[in-house]
Specification:
The protein has 10 helices and no strands.
Length: about 190
């Protein structure tokens, strides 16, 4: 098999990072390199041509997940003509939806990666990126009346609890209660 072009190598790397970002949010960072590369449609050996280690990929995939997420809520602000309160409410409604609950792979990295990032060493890139992403998201959620960190904690807690209780009526009740609390407080 011949060598791949630089453009193909860059495309392969992008595909691995994107796949890892989704799989890590869906299944956690314990996903094996073999399973990850299979999901990306590449060989296990190709991984080591692209990344120094799995930890390096976790760092990059975490950054990718937060960049995607930030782009989504920034686009929401643009879509609502800069009306921050309207964009925030649209985000709260989408965040606390059954669709978001049921799709962690494309969802918020704050909720999906929290336990894995908590196990990362303090000097790791993934933890730094995660911390910055949490701070940025909290800043976006802040209103004149309520601290963004409190709003983020409500969103995060409700999403995690609703995922953990999925399949029971309590799951939907958790989402509805958090949505009502954030709508009244906002």
């Amino acid at each position: 098999m011949g060598r791949v072009s630089q453009a193909q190598a860059e495309e392969n790397r992008r595909r691995v990072v994107d796949t890892a970002s989704r799989l890590f949010r869906e299944q956690g960072t314990q996903v094996s390199v073999a399973d990850l590369m299979n999901a990306a449609g590449l060989t296990h050996g190709a991984f080591y041509k692209q990344f120094a280690s799995k930890e390096a990929l976790v760092d990059e995939a975490t950054a990718h997940a937060f960049a995607e997420f930030t782009q989504r809520y920034s686009a929401g602000l643009e879509r609502h003509d800069g009306q921050r309160a309207v964009a925030q409410q649209a985000l709260v409604d989408a965040y606390l939806s059954v669709e978001h609950r049921d799709d962690p792979a494309d969802g918020c990295p704050v909720a999906a990666l929290a336990t894995d990032i908590a196990r990362e060493g303090e000097g790791r890139g993934a933890r730094r990126v995660y911390t910055e992403g949490v701070a940025d998201f909290a800043d976006f959620l802040a209103t004149d009346d309520q601290d963004g960190i409190a709003r983020l904690c409500t969103l995060f807690g409700a999403l995690v609890l609703s995922r953990a209780t999925k399949g029971s009526p309590l799951s939907g009740e958790i989402l509805a209660a958090a949505r009502a609390a954030l709508t009244e407080a906002g």
